[in-house]
Amino acid sequence: MSWRGIVRDAYLSLPERVQVFDTTLRDGEQTPGVSLRRDEKVAIGRALAELGVAVIEAGYPAVSKGEFESVREVSRLGLGSKVCALARCDRRDIDQAVDAGVDWVHVFIATSEIHMTHKLKMTPEQVYQTAIECVEYARSRGVEVHFSCEDATRSERSFLLKVYKGAAEAGAHSLDIPDTVGVAIPLVMRELARSVRAATGLPVAVHCHDDMGLATANTIAGVEGGAEIVHVTINGIGERAGNASLEEVVVALKYLYGIDSGIDLNRLASVSRMVASFTGMQVQKNKAIVGDHAFSHESGIHVHGIINNPYTYEPIMPEVVGKRRRIVVGKHSGTHAVMEVLKQHGFEVSFEEGKRVLSKVKDYADNGLRLTEHLLLRLVRDDPKLVSAQPFEVVSFRIGVDDNGFSSDIEVHVKGESIRGEGRGTSSVAASIEAVKNVISRVLGPIDVAEYSVYVPPNPDRYPAEAEALVRFNGVTLVGRGLAHDPALAVAMAIGGAVSQALAEKGGHVK
Ligand code: KIV
Ligand code: ZN
Question: What mean pLDDT comes out for the span 253-272?
């Protein structure tokens, strides 16, 4: 569905296309506590280019030697995207950005009263002159000049427009309107984009922070006002509450406005996982588009509708953005849904067994109890008559820690045969993965744990950690799930869940 007609009727000047300016490697890296290694920056840079980002803001070279080297390395990759670096209105900053080999330099200076007085200690006239000189200088260095008035949304309007006009006359190629402390509202952002564009005739970008939870709405409003460039980050990471999230902005633009951003939507989920893993910033479960719950459905009217036609309760299909739908079992589930969930937890379930479990599930739900995945597993484990044993079962698990890191000792039953394995690592999860891989290699041969994620709830005594693992075996990718109060055990169980399916594919034979 698209609101394009309605928006056009409201006389808004929608562009046909927008360019994505991704600042995950710059503003995203300014997230408190986040610091990316150079190889990680390079991997993210490649992933952003494959995703179809028009411009990658790779960093702020003046910050440190390491940052300069990282920007230079990303510039040298010869990516399909343009590479940009940030620079204050300062010749040395601009020189460092240019020397890092970038295509674009993002030059900024603050124009709000509070920043000019208390941070820059400059008069408005000095700020104006400095902006003009620096744009001219950056332009003379042969790069594309992208100019920002920092704190634009709190700047006095006529002064702001004067600086943007001056920057345009001084040779800037495009202008950016930052909502530095996230105080704009959509109406204001739309109007600002419209007026800056009308005053200068240059392509306009919007850079919105999420302090009031309005970053995506404000970015989209900027586009409604004619902005053709959107500053975004993967997973919305960035200073304080973060920036507008790339996933939300591009999906909303495509599906609600019919505007193309050049992004390959299919890759969104995997790039989101990569950035979460390198930054250590977990994606909240209920985050739009890439959160774990974005396409999960609990029991009830929704599941019933989804089974008949997924569009009843999903605006877009999960596969479009590289996600999978997850049905959480409940009284509206069918036998296949129950079998699928149990299979991911490593149970080998026949259709008859699935039916028996389902009838228990329904009794449970009819008594008004909310059936969670955790309770489903307990139900099955407490009554061995319901489902035959798991082909791969963790029977004991121990984590140790010493000066050299973590160790894990695991004992599993594979088709009734007991096997022990050990692993070491820099975290309990890493040690547990090594231990479980060690055990499995003796049963199935080598497997590849392609991806895993573990979610530790805020109240781990009450709610178990939830893990998901993607295991590659014999060219097939299997998804396993694990629940346990210890995250390292949850991951081991998730791998075990996938391995059980691999064993089933092998006809249940142990090597
Ligand atoms: O939020 C901001 O104002 C910035 C500028 C450097 C554009 O990130
Ligand atoms: Zn910012």
Answer: 97
